[in-house]
Amino acid sequence: MSHMRSNYERDLDLNLLRVFAVVVEAGSVTEAASRLYLTQPAVSVALRRLATAIGTPLFTRRGRGLALTSRGVQLRSAIYPHLGALVDAALSPSAFDPKTSDRTLRIGFADAAEAWLLPRLLEVLGQQAPNMRVISLPVQFRTVGAALASGMDAAVTVADELPSSIRRLKLFGGGHVCLFDPRELRLPKRLTEARYLAHDHVIVSYNGDLRGLVEDLLGRQRRIRCSVSTFANIGAIVEGSSLIATVPAMVAEQIRSVRPKLATRKLPFETNSGGAGTELLWLASSDSDDAARFVRDKIIAITSRIPHAA
Q1: pLDDT digits (tens, 9 = 90+) for 56-76
Q2: Per residue, what are the HEC states of 202-225?
Q3: Is 138 exposed, middle or buried (0-12, 13-18, 19+ CB in 10 A)?
Q4: CB atoms within 10 A of CB 135
Q5: Radius of gyration of the chain (CA)
Q6: pTM for the structure as a whole
Q7: Distance CA 9, CA 285 (A)
Q8: How many Å apart are CA 195 and CA 184, to the nearest integer?
Q9: Smaller CB count within 10 Å for the chain: N or C?
């Protein structure tokens, strides 16, 4: 290591060796300057600097061209094999190894997906890619396109129209259920639309208003008592109250795993018309990103093993 450090501390710009190699190959300063996108004086100065650092001339004039001195011939023989290897090393992409990769990926999660998917993804990465890190960011159908365009590696959310530069893969359907506390509210096994609409509701609205999925997509108006911006506290709000929450089936499953006294009912109408569902989204330009593809594959594998993902 001390020998390597002393070599680097010498007054020699390694770029000068590249200039030297191109001049040798071109046979003239003029042609070398053209290939290097430099001026002729700049190439001449570089050769003088290299000769000064080495302590002896490397070229001599021969007619209108240049000829190598004996020291120049020696230098050419010594550096040529190494220059090629250095260029190949610099330009060849490094192989991705999940076991050693310390890549940090920015992944967007819809509020409904983060609670159940992110813990499972982190568990898999802890086993297979222990040094990889995830920055989780909130996205929803109105913001996901801009988020991906600004550098997000992938997103898991519901989306509407998106540009063709964004790849999309459906992970699971968009089915919803009715979540409630049976100790406070009695609902029949088969819930009618009239009964559903007659009860008080808590909704999630990303617009901060009193309109949710049922109002916007289905044109039905509920009796809304409370509107919140995320699904994070829906379970706490519903438990101990007579409120109904309409939530994705995945979210209901997650909430009931920690609040087992809550119950669900099938909705009296379809919320998955048109094949809408949660998708995995990423920029087409990142198809060749091995680390990003590795994490995308893990997300796909996780969702495929979950019953509601069908």
Answers
A1: 999 988 877 788 999 989 888
A2: EEECCCCCCCCHHHHHHCCCCEEE
A3: middle
A4: 11
A5: 32
A6: 0.61
A7: 41
A8: 16
A9: N
